[in-house]
Amino acid sequence: MGSENDDGAAPGGAPTAPAEQRSATTLRVNAEHHTLDLDHRRVLLDVLREDLDLTGAKKGCDHGQCGACTVLVDGRRVNSCLQLAVALDGCEVTTVEGLLGEGEALHPLQRAFLDRDAFQCGYCTPGQICSAVGVIAEAAAGHPSHVTAPGAPSGRPVPLDRDEIRERLSGNLCRCGAYPRIVDAVEDVEGAAT
User: Fold this and answer.
1) What residues are paired with 92 via a beta bridge?
2) Rg of the chain over all Cα atoms, to the nearest angstrom
3) Which portions of the sequence form the region Disordered (predicted)?
């Protein structure tokens, strides 16, 4: 339990925060409960990577601008580099590692990314996949985007055409430029679900 090393330092060698700057925080990560004693300043990304050894979410920009750290919190996509971990006490967190199905079967989006060769270096891929899971859920729940037709009925599922997918994934950057194949992969999964 906790995030201290044996020498009393937090991960990365930083000094441990005094007790009044720490809180017991319970997170359900990929269907497993974790109770951690956390410094109030630590972000979810660092807790996932350093304390729970879940390295799928990547530290790209560390400013919420690239999307490489995207995970799902209570089913909604978030940049984990911006989320204070203690503020998520009691929340359900799903990382790319938690998307695996029964018997470690790939999630349909993971399979589609492989089938469509929708990555090059792969650094952004876990964030792209988690974001795409969120995009599909948001559209199914009827949440409009900037490119959704103004006359679209409120609260009804939004069809995910290529423009919708591109707009909704615009917060996830791919420095290799695999965008067309990423859109293809999301279209494949969305098309199979409808």
Assistant:
1) 28
2) 18
3) 1-23
